[in-house]
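thought: user wants a sequence for this fold. calling inverse folding tool.
action: design(structure=
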């Protein structure tokens, strides 16, 4: 088994609990002690309780925040690609096999979501063109 990392991050909805990993060699266990909460969205690190973060802990948390931001951006791009693919499959389903009941169940929601997406895309592209000169 590989060596345990010094820090463990337990992701939550908008942040992560940060634990220091201590090996209990005598009992063959790992002890997790919460030392902070890290928020990748705003970059804030809040020590847990009375714990004072060391420079190494702070650097490790900052590195995790940077990596987490990169991962979340990659996932968002992947989600957009999958959404474009799903829209194509949905169009095929509507054309080829959706029943009237199927259409009644999803048409309004799909049209609202597509309208929202189209409006947002047009606005963002227009802003970008305006800003580029």
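)
observation: tool returned 133 residues.
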């Amino acid at each position: 088994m590989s060596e345990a990392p010094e820090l463990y991050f337990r992701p939550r909805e908008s942040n992560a609990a940060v634990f220091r990993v201590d090996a209990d060699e005598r009992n063959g266990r790992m002890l997790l002690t919460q030392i902070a909460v890290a928020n990748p969205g705003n970059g804030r690190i809040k020590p847990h309780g009375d714990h004072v973060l060391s420079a190494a802990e702070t650097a490790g948390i900052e590195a995790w925040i940077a990596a987490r931001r990169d991962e979340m951006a990659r996932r968002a791009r992947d989600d957009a690609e999958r959404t474009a693919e799903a829209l194509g499959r949905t169009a095929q389903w509507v054309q080829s096999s959706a029943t009237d009941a199927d259409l009644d169940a999803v048409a309004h929601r799909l049209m609202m979501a597509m309208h929202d997406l189209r409006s947002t895309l047009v606005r963002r592209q227009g802003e970008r063109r305006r800003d580029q000169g």
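thought: summarizing for user.
answer: Here is the designed sequence. The beta strands are 7-11, 16-24, 29-38, 45-47.
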